[in-house]
Amino acid sequence: MDRNVLITGATGGIGRAFACAFAKQGDNLILTGRKEEQLKRIANKICEKYRVHVQYIPLDLSQKNAEEQLWMWCEKRKIKVDILVNNAGYGYVGAFLKEQLEEIDCMSKVNMIAMGKLCWLFGNDMKGRKKGAVINVASTGAYHPGPYTALYYATKAFVLSLSEALEVELKPYGIQVLTICPGAVKTGFSKRAGRRENVFAMSPKRVAMDAVEALEHGKNRMISGMFYKIFIHIPRKIGRYLVCWQQKNMAFHIDK
Ligand SMILES: NC(=O)c1ccc[n+]([C@@H]2O[C@H](COP(=O)([O-])OP(=O)(O)OC[C@H]3O[C@@H](n4cnc5c(N)ncnc54)[C@H](OP(=O)(O)O)[C@@H]3O)[C@@H](O)[C@H]2O)c1
């Protein structure tokens, strides 16, 4: 296919699974994350197994202008990014007021600002070429508030909101925006967040494979797993039904 796929947060979990899923299809990869050794190991393994071209750049997205550095790095090597996967992110479990103040900066930068700036930088290139795709990794937590994981859920609501808007804005330029909203996934995420693994946790491979399939089918939204589809859709449907019912009753006299 000869496409170049740039994946952030590719040193493990869902990002690494994305790398394998795209490589399996014959796509070339650009991987990034902070851990250089891990990136090198993953790049070598994928190269050997799938015979695709894999490059990597270690980068801390919490640092100022890391996004520009990543864009410049691709530009210097004349790499045209066909698919951008904004996957890097992390969360925490704990009281908001007990969080370190620097952590609020750091999480906001990695989960929101970096994602938004990378959409802008690579989105403009794609606009020029009149084709491309962006996958943004949100969460089922994007759909509701999360006390004791407040900032993380809020950052994911930002990802979902920006992505849904870009889905409309970028479509005329031939750019597809797919937002994926996984529930719990078995990765290093829970350990870093300081919480127990959820019994419903899915495999990262399943999530990445479903996302790649959703992309190929031209979809814009993907919630992973039946349990989470029900968990998100039913409350929304009931809420909409109740609001409509209440509105109708309030306006009962109008038609009379
Ligand atoms: N696992 C879940 O239950 C779950 C559920 C819903 C959504 N998600 C979302 O899925 C995405 C991937 O998470 P995961 O579950 O695969 O967790 P993970 O295994 O912890 O992977 C997170 C990735 O993000 C990268 N990352 C974190 N901080 C970074 C920074 N400052 N700069 C650059 N890269 C950074 C990590 O790379 P380095 O450590 O090498 O920097 C790692 O590759 C995240 O956006 C997460 O919010 C996860």
Q: Quick gist of this model?
A:
The chain is an alpha/beta fold. It contains 8 helices and 7 strands. Strand 4, helix 4 and strand 5 form a beta-alpha-beta unit.
Give keywords.
single chain; 256 residues; alpha/beta; Rossmann fold; 7-stranded parallel β-sheet; 8 helices; binds NADP nicotinamide-adenine-dinucleotide phosphate
Unreliable stretches covering 5 or more consecutive residues: none
Q: Biggest sheet, in brief?
A: 7 strands, parallel
- List the total number of helices: 8
The helix/strand class is: alpha/beta
The third-level CATH topology is Rossmann fold
The proportion of residues forming helix, as a percent range, comes to 40-55%
Number of strands: 7
Count of domain modules: 1
Beginning-to-end CA distance, first to last residue: 63 Å
Mean residue pLDDT: 93
Bound molecules: NADP nicotinamide-adenine-dinucleotide phosphate
Net shape: globular
**Share of residues in strands:** 5-15%
Major beta sheet, strand line-up: 3-2-1-4-5-6-7
**How does CATH name the architecture?**
3-Layer(aba) Sandwich
SSE ordering: EHEHEHEHEHEHHEH
| Rg of Cα set | 19 Å
> Considering the protein shown, what is the CATH homologous superfamily?
NAD(P)-binding Rossmann-like Domain
* Top-tier CATH class: Alpha Beta
